[in-house]
Amino acid sequence: MRILLALALTAAVFTATPALACKCMPDDGTLAQKVMNDPSISVADVLVRAVNTRTHITVMDIKNLHSGGLASTYVRAKYGQSSCDVRPTPGNTTMLIKNEPDGTYSLVGDCERAAVIQHLKGQ
Description:
Layout: H1 2-16, H2 31-37, H3 43-51, E1 57-64, E2 74-81, E3 89-99, E4 105-107, H4 110-121
Antiparallel strand pairs: 1-2, 2-3, 3-4
């Protein structure tokens, strides 16, 4: 009975964890339309990909920042380089995406990113 319960819990954990899709999305001017029509593509995904469309930036991990009361303001996206048919290579690069008061998103510049990281280290 314990084995069955353990297997059921393990299956529930793996099925409940959403996976980020790796999609080839060159910047052809229709990214906004694709986001509107495809719920598996997030706004943060498109923003990070837009940084360098020639090397197909692929988001590895997107998390809200929960420290320091910044969860509603910043999103952290870790990403690596890949091509459409090759598994993404994790990178050490972390990008912050800011949720602006008007509901839009923007990429955080170096100065602001450094300030946020310093703020989080002080927690």
